[in-house]
Amino acid sequence: MNVTLTPSTTVDRHTSLDPVTFEVLKNAFATSVDLMSEQILRTCYSFVIYSRDFSSALCDAQGNTVMQGSGDIAVHVGTLHFQCKAVIEEFGDDIHPGDVFAVNDPYKGGTHINDVSFIRPIFSEGRIIAYAQNKGHWADIGGPVPGSFNVAATEHFGEGLRITPIRIWSKGVYLQDIAKLLVGNTRAPEQAMGDLHAQSEATAVCEREILRLAERYGTDTVENAMQETQNYVERTVLRRLKGLPQGTWETTDYLDLDPGAPEGLVPINIKMTLDGEGIHYTLEGGPAIKAFLNSGYGTTFSAIYAGTKTFFPDVPLNSGFYAAVTAEIGPEGTVINAGWPLAVTGTVSGPYEKIMNGIFEIWSKVMPERAMACAFNLEYLLVGGRDARGADAPYFMWYDWMAGGWGGRVSKDGSSATAPVFGVGLAVQACEGQERLTPVLTTMHQIGTDSGGPGRYRGGCGVEKGGLLTDADSSVMSYCCDRARSITWGIEGGLPSIPHGVWLNRDTEEERFLGSIFSSVPVQPGDSFFRPSAGGGGLGDPLERTPEEVLEDVIDDYVSVARAAEDYGVVIHSIDPDLDEYKIDVQATSAKRDWIRERRADWLLVDPREVAEKYQSGEIDLLDVIRRYGVILDWGTGELFEETTRQHREQMMRRSAGHWKS
């Protein structure tokens, strides 16, 4: 089945609402959604949701989104209307005051099974006028792996509990048996039950606010305002599009690999057309991969919406925005449209951010004044088992994600240590809270030197984090990420950043590089682990960055003295690093930059096998391999990935070398 998104036909384009009332109600809708968020933040049980992995929305009677929260997770926002419509389709006329529904089904427009939505109809004058929805990420939803991130799963049966639209409250009556059935399939049922009640009550907060507005302004006026709020956004977007260049642009980004196929990056092709009537996308992806990094249609459309919305930051996001966009994502069974029962739990680390970054690149050409290179990839590290600190050794899930770097921008460096583009409202989990709740000690957490992609405008820096497993039994580790091979890229001459991946017992005789995607690796008390998050890609030729700016990066420990010379051609002498005393060697810098200019295009033509041998012997380091020679290896063994290298070099030729001046 081909899936095509077309403009909404449910929005009434005519209204008699006066401007003042419209503006008051539009902002009141935003407040009603933010009140939901404040409620869930104060009453949730899980540390994951407390760290803001949740979103809220107000939908109209047809399920169209009227308003999102101001701090929501990007991957959620483009799917909430799909899930609301799924409830409407499932229950039809059998929806009553006091009902609350739950759903996490990724095949009905959801994200992944950890994201559980609670949806409450809002009745006024005997009819449904709206729906309130809250979606939160449950730390565990069952399945064979603690945290429910089973990399090896190829179907959802190996991931966890799929919740098709189901009633949890019926006409105000709590269906305790249904709720217990859901939470009983998780490793932390008390925590899940607490979140279930917190999320449901959050929707009641929104309901009370909307009914207050209906009582004050009238039900018909509130419904008109919901329609006009969507109309306003659609008109605004279409008006702005008319002032932009018209034409077609396209690009390709990649997943690291398909575990069921020979090595090689997995392409996702994105084409966008502006024709004065709207924004039109066509996406193509290969067959679904043999892992859980595929994307359902809801997540793919969410990536399209979120990537596009980034270039219209002041425009509210609702179904009026979606109405200005059409998209075709092709038949089911692909990496970007994985229908039932293909595994999709890792989608946000897989196709989602690849689509977003590809759209960033396209819109950087349409709106060069807002250009931005590739941002780092979302990653999750999970350690789960039994907490031996407690008498009954309860299950624990140490569930962690890191900040990282966004791409260099057209007039400034990228943001460092920032939330991933999948959800800019996401908070880094507090180490103190993690250590109190789980037997995992944080041993380091700092900015990663040399992690930002070099460029005229440097990519933002990533973060390095280390941990130590303490009093734990029967524990395993899983990691969901990407871009160990499809390295975060630069544009307009900028260079890539660094690869993702986890090291176990680094700098010991038992050191192992586990890579960027694995699950159920046994770990013991005393095992240590380390991982970096990538920085953003660079924008512009790094040889055009002023030596003074490079010196400031060295002083700030964003760039090392060695990489200042190798990546930027700036020779800096250390006088007293403790006092931040360095000196630029002007003559040596001029000579170094001339030397790099003469050779750098040829470096991308060097036999990759020769590069691999130099890396294995220690003659060159990892960043030389990636940034200078455009070669991709197994970063643990040094094994050459020939096809991946060919694809990586093609990207570097287009995005980097093609913009260098001789």
UniProtKB/TrEMBL annotation:
Question: What is the recorded name of this protein?
Answer: Hydantoinase B/oxoprolinase family protein
Q: Which Pfam families does the UniProt entry name for this protein?
A: Hydantoinase_B
State the InterPro entries in the record.
Answer: Hydantoinase_B (IPR003692), Oxoprolinase-like (IPR045079)
Instruction: Tell me which domain of life the UniProt entry assigns to the organism this sequence originates from.
Output: Bacteria
Transmembrane regions listed in the UniProt entry = none
Task: Describe the location of the Hydantoinase B/oxoprolinase domain by residue ranges.
Answer: 18-542
Recorded source organism is: Gulosibacter molinativorax
